[in-house]
């Protein structure tokens, strides 16, 4: 198993977080954002919300990140991405568990997320972590190509 650590994100991680975000967006199939990504703007956003994020670090480089956006209603919206070269190596599982732990430590009663319906690896990871499918958004996301993609809404209650 590859060596990496999961830790709380820091404001100083924001630029590297924005760069991995842009790289995953460039793939055009795993996250809703598509290129171009404004690295400066995204880094500023990540710096402001670093206390709600965790990162996976290998060899001094961020290889994955997870953010939980708490709502005033007691649930959190989870968003995650992992560098292509680090997928299937335990990074996603470790990040999801850190997100679950973070949300419980902050008194959230539920985590929810949205995942593209074709992203079978991510869906399997979330199911393995205890998330259940709660619904489907049909033809919900318009892509730059003009295609309309379905997403699956999943949740994990305490």
What can be said about this structure in brief?
The chain is 30% helix and 35% strand. It is of the alpha+beta class.
Question: What can you see in these coordinates?
Answer:
This protein has 158 residues and is an alpha+beta fold. 30% of the residues lie in helices and 35% in strands. It has helices spanning 14-27, 39-48, 91-105, 120-128; strands spanning 5-8, 53-58, 61-70, 75-82, 110-116, 132-142, 148-157. It has a seven-stranded mixed β-sheet, sandwiched between helices. Strand 4 (75-82), helix 3 and strand 5 form a beta-alpha-beta unit. The radius of gyration is 15 Å and the shape is globular. The chain starts with a strand and ends with a strand.
Number of strands: 7
Unreliable spans are none
Please describe the biggest sheet, giving its number of strands, its sense, and whether it closes into a barrel: 7 strands, mixed
By secondary-structure content and strand pairing, the structural class works out as alpha+beta
Mean pLDDT: 97
Helical residue percent band? 25-40%
Quick one: overall form? Answer: globular
User: What string gives the helices and strands in order?
Assistant: EHHEEEHEHEE
DSSP strand content = 35-45%
Terminal residue distance: 30 Å
- Sequence of strands across the biggest β-sheet: 1-2-3-4-5-7-6
Tally of DSSP helical segments: 4
Write down the Rg: 15 Å
